[in-house]
Write a structure and sequence with these properties.
512 residues, 8-stranded antiparallel β-sheet, 6-stranded antiparallel β-sheet, alpha+beta, single chain
Amino acid sequence: MPDRHRLPQPLNRRTALHGLAAGAAVIAFDPLARTWVTAAGHPAPATGRTTTGGPFADVPPLDGTLVTDPAALAADADDFGHSVHRTPAAILRPGSVADVVTMIRFCNDQGIQVAARGQGHATNGQAQVDGGLIVETATLNAIGPVRAQQGAGTGTVTVQAGAVWSAVVHATLAQGLTPPVFTDYLELSVGGTLSVGGLGGQTHLYGAQVDNVTQLQVVTGAGELLTCSATRRPDLFRAVLAGLGQCAVIVSATLRLVTAPVTVRHFLLPYTDLATFLDDQRLLAEDDRFAYVEGEVVPDAAGAFTGYVLEAVAYGPPAGPEPDDTALLAGLRYDTSGAVTAETLDYFDFLNRLAAGVAALEQAGLWSWAHPWLNLLLPGDSAATLARTLLDGIAGQDTGPGGVVLIYPLVSDRLRTPLLRMPADPVPYLLAVLWTMDPADQAAVQARAAANAAAYETVRVAGGTQYPVGTIAMSPADWRAQYGRSWPEFAAAKQRYDPNRLLAPGQHVFTP
């Protein structure tokens, strides 16, 4: 593996862990006081409690660091939602996969709950744990060699869970290959998106990101380092992909690759009628003329969500033929009098198109606002009716700076991961209302979360599900209903691989 992919090794394997703030060695955990203990015999800065005596459990030597300073704990008690705050007792920044194994085994012995955190992009505390251990996977970010299949235009690459998708595609493009599916924002970790599904504009053609994984290496809730695939421990493979971190922490994944285009043809097509817009999206999802299909709903001057923009992208050579605008747009009923965009873009520039906007939001301090997102999966046969009801319900409401309403089709036959729950319809639609709200107005944020729950119930009753990246409070009973026929196997995997129910409590799948 090239030097640039080697993992940092801040501490020798034989040394103790060090709290980064005070510099005192964290050498033990006091199971009575539920606090970490330093070499001086004082509690580490994870809590303000003093120790009460009793037997201490020695913290094992690791390659990485165990962080207990208040600033780090406060950062991991927050996420992209900025509305739920659960403070961990400590944070593991692993220097190796072995560190994850060691600390999960330690946490089993001590009854400490554990959650994995990638880029902190959860919106409702899903990767938080009150008084437990956060495993920050960002230090596990190695990207292995791209293995191209000679003459096939395909290949694989094995990457660690903390690698972000922008880094992965940079590495694969050097070999003319690309992962087939991307979320719209590339600075998310591989482990994070594989834990929820990974939907994007290419999903109608290639499935979700989880459908393009050939093998995983994971650390189970019992502290076992295991490799799994569709043929090796398939029950674990199925339980981890889109499994919300319930059975294991992903430490690496082998991803399928396809031929990358050099350039793409990018279209933005305006519509004035919702049903026509959705029908044309469905046509494109089913005939595969475009590699990427999404859509946005925009408000009119009065705040009603009655404008629609179909976004479609055709891949050029060598991934596809030279794009022909006439053939690509044939049969589409968009408003030719509106603002139509047709442009040729570099492939990576297209994938990374949100970067400039995110940078502007960060500079303005708006990226740190609350994001009580709503992400729903609608049955295709009732998508127009449901979407109209939901859009009318938010008429006149500002989605906020950088906020957007998206809707686009998926194809069920290409979605093969059992825990990525879809409506029973051949072409379901994702409807996402990506709110941005002032975090100082927590009453408004909580009201939005309550409205999200009501919207989900409307969709659930109609046969829909939720894509679990948003701000919707869910109980174990709600999750049981969401997973439907997949629940018994999921629950059995939880018992088998995380028998003490330590992993990812913030999702509330198996624990209130």
